[in-house]
């Protein structure tokens, strides 16, 4: 729920968002598979097929100190995604 609240505060529509299991991703192919922690990296590589697998190790907001850990993590993700998009659109 805190992640949804952070997204809404950030101005992202959360309608129809839900957590998906890895089973829902099984057999699908992606251009990029980006994991956000070491555990997810290991699990995603076993289940998902991607042209590129990227591992971004972010601190878990559930255990992160501070008054707005989910907002801070969302801000960090936003910055990383912006850089990722910039780099990947410049190389094409």
Rounded Rg: 14 Å
**What number of structural domains do the residues give?**
1
Rounded average pLDDT: 88
Low-confidence stretches: none
Biggest sheet, open or closed, and with what strands and sense?
2 strands, parallel
* CATH second-level architecture: 3-Layer(aba) Sandwich
From the structure provided, what is the oligomeric state, counting identical versus distinct chains? single chain
Report the order of strands and helices: HHEHEH
The top-level CATH class is Alpha Beta
Roughly how much helix do the residues carry, as a percent range? Answer: 40-55%
CATH topology: Rossmann fold
Care to describe what's here?
This is Protein-tyrosine-phosphatase. The protein contains four helices and two strands, in the order H-H-E-H-E-H. The protein is globular. Helix content is 48%, strand content 15%. It has one domain: Response regulator (Rossmann fold, 3-Layer(aba) Sandwich), CATH 3.40.50. It has a two-stranded parallel sheet with strand order 1-2. It has 92 residues and is an alpha+beta fold.
């Amino acid at each position: 729920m805190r992640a949804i609240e952070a997204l809404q505060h950030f101005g992202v529509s959360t309608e129809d968002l839900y957590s998906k299991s890895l089973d829902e991703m099984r057999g699908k192919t992606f251009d990029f598979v980006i994991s956000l922690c070491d555990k997810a990296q290991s699990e995603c590589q076993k289940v998902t097929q991607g042209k590129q697998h990227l591992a971004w190790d972010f601190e878990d907001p559930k255990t992160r100190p501070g008054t707005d850990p989910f907002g801070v993590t969302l801000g960090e993700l936003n910055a990383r995604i912006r850089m990722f998009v910039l780099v990947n659109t410049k190389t094409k």
